[in-house]
Write a structure and sequence with these properties.
Layout lengths: L2 E6 L10 E6 L3 H9 L3 E3 L2 E6 L11 E10 L2 E12 L3 H24 L5 H26 L3 H6 L2 H8 L7 H10 L1 E2 L1 E6 L5 E7 L3 E7 L5 E5 L9 H10 L7 E2 L2 E2 L9 E2 L7 H7 L10 H8 L13 E6 L5 E6 L1 H5 L8 H18 L5 H10 L4 H9 L10 E7 L2
Antiparallel strand pairs: 1-2, 3-4, 4-17, 5-6, 6-7, 6-8, 7-14, 8-9, 9-15, 10-11, 10-16, 12-13, 16-17
Helix pairs in contact: 2-3, 2-6, 3-6, 11-12
């Protein structure tokens, strides 16, 4: 296969720089994108997770889960997208722990009710996600339950306790899970395929596309946008912290973090002494210590981030329907367009709907990623995949597309 080397400013002329990239031809372009995006299909679900920056030290912090649970009344379908940030510790723990917590709660509910009320399912999803994060808090408070004692301990004493990597790393893992963070987006479908629940915590997106009798696809947003740019979230935080106008600055909580709800991120949930004395003494530490010092001055009445998700229940009909779940990296690829979230969601649904009609749908998630990167513009897609920059030029992007009918 031939490749042509070209140069681009990536649309950022202010950098006064050109970066080399390779223009790929077909079929290499399609196969290389599938490889880089780790395209896969399982059951009724297509998945990709994409970060083209090649340095493994700052690798993709997105995760996804596709599970089928054979329970007493049939097979339940569980799907999830987790967008980790500041490191891999929290998001890896979410993948390992949260699905089993939700499954255990569902088994308990089904043992009491053969046909549980939809609101009961919503409750166990919300409760399990909050409980997961509360467990992170509990674990670190068991190590350091008293702020007065923390203030009396020396830095050396704290480092010895929390940086126990040579003796198994149990305490180090507890601290790291609180230091890092993750969004949570989960879906659950009952055995009859007649009910769908979506729980959202953070700014990942869930979009439902339903094909109506006239052949048009209808779009519904099933996730909340828990981000500092959301006026409702901003108002909620300001009301929870009266007299603290700086608790949201520049559309960021305490001027530092974009999401307003997440698991982990205990810098924004615990008193500042935990960050000053515990988290800042952990190894590996933070890569942005100066920013931490700035926002800690505004940490007066924590918590500032919520761990309570929103849950939506949808009654599914008999018509064709698709559920799109994605991290916010997919939405970021549309930043240059003057479109609302709903407008972008409509584009996704209509694009996949056309592919459903034509039956040209080998992997719906991969097709949607390709469209967002540039579609049939091979030059643009190649540039996004192969540009040789020394910093990341796009966010981690994960897409899970499930055919519900």
């Amino acid at each position: 296969m031939s490749r042509t080397s070209k140069y681009t400013d990536m649309g950022w002329p202010e950098y006064d720089a050109l970066w080399k990239y390779d223009l790929l031809s077909e079929p290499e372009l399609t196969s290389e994108l599938a490889r880089l995006a780790e395209a896969s299909s399982s059951h009724d679900t297509d998945c990709v997770t994409f970060q083209p920056f090649p340095d493994p030290a700052v690798g993709n912090q997105d995760r996804y889960v596709v599970l089928q649970w054979p329970l007493a009344n049939g097979s339940w379908l569980f799907r999830a997208v987790f967008d980790g940030h500041a490191g891999h510790d929290t998001v890896d723990h979410v993948v390992k722990t949260l699905p089993d917590m939700i499954k255990a709660s569902l088994i308990t509910l089904l043992s009491d009710q053969d046909e549980p009320n939809p609101s009961s399912i919503s409750d166990i999803l919300a409760d399990a996600i909050s409980a997961f994060d509360n467990n992170l808090t509990r674990d670190v408070l068991q190590l350091f339950p008293d702020q007065r004692i923390i203030s009396e301990l020396s830095d050396d004493a704290i480092r010895i306790l929390i940086n126990d990597h040579d003796s198994g790393g149990k305490n180090a893992a507890i601290v790291a899970r609180c230091m890092r963070g993750s969004t949570v987006l989960t879906s659950l479908v009952d055995p009859a395929r007649s009910n769908l629940w979506v729980a959202s915590l953070g700014d990942s997106q869930a979009v439902l596309g339903v094909k109506r009798s006239h052949g048009h696809w209808e779009t519904s947003l099933l996730s909340s946008f828990h981000n500092g740019t959301n006026p409702d979230e901003k108002e909620r935080i300001l009301l929870e912290h009266p007299g603290e106008p700086d608790c949201v600055m520049d559309d960021r909580v305490l001027g530092a973090i974009a999401v307003t709800r997440a698991v982990g991120d205990h810098l924004f949930k615990l008193p500042s002494i935990y960050t000053e004395r515990i988290f800042k003494n952990a190894k590996p530490g933070f890569s942005f210590t100066k920013k931490i010092d700035d926002f800690l001055l505004r940490n007066k009445t924590p918590p500032y981030l919520s761990n309570r998700p929103d849950v939506r229940h949808v009654k599914l009909g008999a018509t064709d329907s698709l559920l799109i779940m994605c991290s916010d990296g997919l939405l970021d690829l549309y930043e240059d367009y003057d479109l609302s979230l709903r407008d972008v969601a409509d584009l996704w649904v209509k694009f996949l709907g056309r592919r459903e009609t034509s039956r040209d749908n080998p992997n719906r998630a991969l097709s949607l990623l390709r469209e967002a990167l540039g579609g049939e513009d091979a030059d643009k897609v190649s540039r996004m995949m192969t540009v040789e920059m020394d910093f990341r030029w796009m966010d981690d992007t994960t897409i899970v597309v499930q055919r519900l009918r």
